């Protein structure tokens, strides 16, 4: 599963130390899966429990707290034993799907909080199917910045999607529509979306791509890297009805998104130093809006106390 470096203008764990947290995430993920898989196998064999991880029983759970991100906002870096709920899965495939969802919530947590700061997260991100697809279906070595706000010449610019792989930087402009929506080109400046009998005109997505590329190149102008900048327009659930005329901009719709995923999965390179340098530079130029955890906890306690009084 990919690593969500930045989500909107939220505070991110990766901003603390870009060179440390990617490897920590991979380690935590592997430890968590090992425990889930061993307890799953033990349950299938009719055993009540495994003695291997009893020393961890008193530890707080980073993953558990990530799942409860919107109820309890604490984040220590420890791994729990699997719960009874984790072990209810009848098949290994069901366990894997549950594990992916758990990791997705964990990544949302890291992309919106640190030990001392927190950013209120829009609930819509939890159900964003494109965000889920990118995080769940790409490798650990891929870094995602989803709708970040980057500073170019001190001016904040709202971006779309950046995927930083060991060899490439993908700039993606998403097109949102239903499964029956069809996107077509009208002119050099406009596209149209046909959906449920309604035709809507909007600016050519390449205009947004050009702006994103300009901002990216400005930020990285003094960074020595070998990553190739690639561009795409993606309609995950809809159709893009025009030929792939330009090799500079890849068109990705519901018919080709799995092919696009397979192309990315072919890149099995480990995390590269240039990739880390680029990601760190982009995070340094990202807008962050957050508040102190202490202030929020005080506010929650006040509300709860007032409720008790009433």
TrEMBL record:
Protein name: NERD domain-containing protein
High-level lineage: Bacteria, Bacillati, Bacillota, Bacilli, Bacillales
